[in-house]
Amino acid sequence: MKSFLRAVGLASALVAASTAAQASTNFASYLKCRHTTLTDFPGTIVEAAVATPELSTLVSLVSAAGLVDALNGPGPLTVFAPTNDAFGKVPAPLLGLIGGSNELLTQVLTYHVSAGMADPRRSLIPTQVKTLQGQTLYVGYDQDGASVNQSVAACKGVKTRNGTVWLIDSVLLPQFK
């Protein structure tokens, strides 16, 4: 019986040590992400997006909607930029519907932009950020990392001459009226 209890105790200690080590690693990643410095880009938000291959779909949609000048404006602006993979997750009929209407496309794209500087890594309590589209987003940071609504945001943003760009893993959709 003693050897059985020792074996159970040893197994429990190993599980606890493994869990503690994993928690320590997760906490280190958690802190690292919160304190990562922004990457500096010498151009505008649009120029940074053009220079980022993962944002080619967003760039073409911004151009199609006629928003290039607005995103090249003085700012500061914050853009939560869906990657090509994020656009790939949107069902084709929905993407076609949005892309087929300049009004809908503009609503969706401006829902990804806020005036001022918003950093999803800074708020431990979800914080509302008003978008240029007029509705609000929730940005926050928890054990899973930085988020914008239910989208995961990259730990490292890009600081441009007129604002900041954060890559996100899904397309944010406003409430349509």
Listing every helix as H and every strand as E from the N terminus to the C terminus, the arrangement reads HEHHHEHHHEEEEEEE
The strand order across the widest sheet is: 1-8-9-2-3
Q: Give the end-to-end Cα distance, rounded to a whole number of Å.
A: 69 Å
What is the global morphology? Answer: globular
State mean pLDDT (0 to 100 scale).
84
Oligomer: single chain
Flag low-confidence runs.
4-25
Find the count of extended strands (DSSP E, 2+ residues): 9
Helical residue percent band: 40-55%
Radius of gyration: 21 Å
**β content, as a range?**
15-25%
Q: Work out the helix count.
A: 7
Give a quick account of the main beta sheet: strands, pairing sense, barrel closure. Answer: 5 strands, mixed
Structure, explained:
This protein is an alpha+beta fold and 177 residues long. The strands form two sheets. Strands 1-8-9-2-3 form a five-stranded mixed sheet. The protein has a four-stranded antiparallel sheet with strand order 4-5-6-7, with helices on one face. The N and C termini lie far apart (69 Å). The chain has seven helices and nine strands, in the order H-E-H-H-H-E-H-H-H-E-E-E-E-E-E-E. The chain is globular, with a radius of gyration of 21 Å. Mean pLDDT is 84; it is low at 4-25. The protein is 42% helix and 21% strand.
